[in-house]
């Protein structure tokens, strides 16, 4: 009677016997009654690669070197893909830094998070002529004008000069004095006012009757 014991090295695990012995018992004993060929089979360990996102976006995976869950030593390239109006910020967990895409070697259980932040856009308002514009933030999650912020603009002519509002120009057009602007890109807006022309009155007829 012979006892066989399989011992794995490094990142390998025992995966059963083949040949004259079968099964997964380890150690295993066999009675030798004739010539025997015994093979111990080993495979690479497999580990989970857990992915998560913070913000709006996704992560694409590309296996660069396969040695799947992933076998130990597999090299995976991760690419952070931001959603519309979002931008990739950095990696967290078992992957750090801001490089994108970036490779990770799966030699143990790995957990990676891609962090996305909302884009902010420049917003410029110009006033031409005698008047003023009231700006009201209708929808905003932070103090800055992030993508998706809604700004309500209300144009007010200068009553002291009898000015009139003539319209918006730039990235927004129209003559409605109250508008709502969605900050989904860089915005350059001009509000134009002009002075009302003085009223004209006909001159009286000063001729004396004949």
Main beta sheet strand tally, sense and closure: 3 strands, mixed
Gyration radius from CA atoms, angstroms: 37 Å
Question: What are the segments in which pLDDT stays under 50 over at least 5 consecutive residues?
Answer: 139-143
Number of helices, counting only DSSP H or I runs of 4 residues or more: 0
Give the beta-strand count: 18
Shape: rod-shaped
Portion in helices:
under 10%
- Proportion of residues in extended strands: over 45%
Order of helices and strands: EEEEEEEEEEEEEEEEEE
Can you list the strand order of the major beta sheet? 6-12-10
Q: In angstroms, what separates the terminal alpha carbons?
A: 152 Å
Structural class: mainly beta
| Mean pLDDT reading | 84
Explain what the structure shows:
The chain has about 210 residues and is mainly beta. It has strands at about 1-5, 10-20, 30, 40-45, 45, 50-55, 55-65, 70, 75-80, 85-95, 100-105, 110-120, 125-130, 130-140, 150-155, 165-170, 180-185, 185-195. The chain is built from no helices and 18 strands. Mean pLDDT is about 85; it is low at about 140-145.
Task: Kindly list the characteristics that best describe this protein.
210 residues, rod-shaped
Secondary structure elements and their pairing?
Layout: E1 2-4, E2 12-19, E3 28-30, E4 38-44, E5 46-47, E6 49-54, E7 57-65, E8 70-71, E9 74-82, E10 86-93, E11 102-106, E12 110-118, E13 123-128, E14 131-139, E15 149-157, E16 163-170, E17 178-183, E18 187-195
Brief synopsis:
With 210 residues, the protein is an all-beta fold. 0% of the residues lie in helices and 56% in strands.
